[in-house]
Specification:
Distance between the termini: 16 Å
Structural class: mainly alpha
Number of strands: 2
Strand order of the largest sheet: 1-2
Helix content: over 70%
Mean pLDDT: 79
Low-confidence stretches: 1-43, 495-506
Strand content: under 5%
């Protein structure tokens, strides 16, 4: 039958569409020959660089917000803020159902009408999230939290509902190669959040003021994302039970793994808040917040690569798939090592500079959690490709095992060692899951080449030496980042974009 080949990457590059007749093949198994793989990835490179640039700005804004809140609220007040947000994040991650990854994968396969599919994704998310965030404040009534925290949870639920809707639509932006718009929307919301936080800091307002600021920022971000989405795709609230079944069929294994992942990703803070004072939660939360803003990096890169990887797998183009995996693994390995090295060298003075001497112990916690952060980066590099291969169901037992080990570790070590126990258990579980993902792909003939590892290691060592120079802290940090980026470019670890137009043979 005759079909029109339409892919966002090609449309972005200005490729011509040609109908073709392949009666013996399914529509999703078409073959595309590309004259130059580098050009196919050039759009990906551009989007990644734009997103990374916006992420740098957003990270600076996020760190400034944390610095204001920690200085205004202290360890006890910031611990209460961390408890409220961690409790709601537990439900936000649970309700995600893996829909962001599912959206990118199904859009990449092009099996359904795009507008209809997006409308059903939106309705699926809005209805399910509304139910969950209505239940979240009700369930908190039975937890041993003071009444102020329970009011804060109810107050902040609306902001998390808006945030989950925004995140569910990010897969559409990724499949459309419009991710720079996500960065701009997030930047606008963070600027507003910083402004309101600064006002609350100047007026010495209480915890609820900072929670209201978070709600306003999340709602504004959601509105911007929905408004921008209508510019390049048809979007309306739709319910088609056939599409809902297809969405659930694709996403339920991811939803189950996310539920297990949730236990060892957020249970540490929740258990800490139940058995230790709010000050301990605040110290742990300060270190976690610094790394939390960086954990969006693997999602950015993985989300951009996912549609390409899913398409390469459908086409059985193993050469392209291996190149994508190797490049993604190396990029996230480089980022993870840089974060870990930087945390070990200047983690404590950076925490003190940002939050004050009251949070000095958070520097030691940051050093431990940076190891977990590097493991998460590598685990995500493999996890997105496992999903692209549609083999996530096979790892459900390993996620269940990791969840049980983490829960047991938190229950045993947090009461005795507080935040240090939580941090080290997190490290062990994240390393375990990263190894599981890597070994699983290894057995499916996807192996990271690691040919660029010596150059990545050399760049990391040069950055560490720069960070040790007898200079003011911010000068060392800026110079260290600059040296690292120059090394990555010099060693050709950053893809070179070629502006000239290439021909795509369909």
């Amino acid at each position: 039958r005759r079909t029109l080949v339409r892919f966002p990457a090609y449309r972005q590059a200005g490729a011509l569409y040609k109908p073709y007749d392949r009666a013996a093949r399914r529509v999703s198994n078409f073959d595309i020959q590309i004259s130059d793989l580098n050009y196919m990835l050039s759009t990906l490179s551009q989007q990644t660089i734009i997103q990374l640039a916006s992420k740098v700005v957003n990270t600076i804004l996020g760190v400034a917000i944390v610095a204001l809140m920690t200085r205004a609220l202290g360890t006890h007040g910031f611990g209460e803020y961390t408890t409220v947000t961690s409790y709601l994040q537990f439900f936000a991650i649970l309700i995600d159902f893996g829909l962001t990854m599912t959206a990118g994968r199904i859009l990449g396969e092009a099996k359904y009408d795009e507008g209809k599919l997006l409308g059903n994704f939106l309705s699926f998310r809005v209805i399910s999230a509304s139910i969950i965030f209505l239940l979240a404040p009700i369930l908190s009534i039975w937890l041993p939290y003071p009444i102020e925290l329970k009011i804060g949870i109810a107050l902040t639920s609306l902001g998390f509902l808006a945030s989950t809707i925004s995140q569910s639509l990010s897969g559409v932006y990724q499949a459309k190669f419009k991710t720079h718009l996500l960065g701009l929307a997030d930047m606008s919301a963070r600027i507003i959040l910083l402004a309101i936080t600064w006002l609350a800091y100047q007026k010495s307002l209480n915890l609820n003021a900072y929670l209201i600021a978070l709600v306003i920022a999340n709602v504004i971000n959601c509105v911007i994302i929905l408004w921008q989405l209508k510019k390049f795709t048809n979007l309306s609230f739709q319910i088609d039970w056939q599409i809902w079944r297809a969405i659930w069929h694709t996403t339920w294994p991811v939803a189950l793994t996310i539920a297990f992942n949730l236990i060892y990703f957020k249970a540490d803070t929740l258990i800490l808040s139940l058995v230790k004072p709010s000050a301990d939660v605040g110290l742990y939360g300060a270190a976690y917040k610094i790394l939390e803003v960086l954990l969006a990096l693997p999602a950015i890169i993985g989300g951009l690569v996912l549609p390409l990887a899913a398409r390469a797998w459908v086409q059985k183009n193993m050469v392209e798939l291996k190149n994508l995996y190797s490049g993604t693994f190396d990029a996230l390995l480089a980022a993870g090592l840089a974060i870990m090295a930087g945390s070990f060298v200047i983690g404590t003075p950076l925490i003190i500079w940002l939050t004050g001497t009251e949070f000095a112990i958070s520097g030691s916690i940051l050093m431990i959690l940076s190891v977990a952060c590097a493991a998460i980066f590598l685990g995500n590099a493999s996890g997105y490709f496992i999903f692209a291969l549609d083999k996530q169901k096979k790892l459900i037992p390993m996620y269940a095992l990791a969840a049980l080990l983490a829960l047991a570790g938190y229950i045993i070590f947090i009461p005795q060692y507080s935040y240090f126990g939580a941090a080290w258990v997190t490290v062990g579980v994240e390393i375990f899951m990263a190894l599981v993902n890597i070994i699983f792909l290894w057995r499916n003939n996807l192996v990271p080449t690691l040919t660029r590892f010596p150059k990545i290691l050399a760049a990391t060592l040069l950055m560490m030496l720069t960070l040790m120079l007898p200079l003011p802290l911010i000068s060392r940090l800026g110079l260290g980042i600059g040296v690292y980026l120059v090394c990555l470019w010099w060693f050709k670890l950053i893809p070179r974009m070629e502006p000239q137009k290439r021909n795509l043979v369909l």
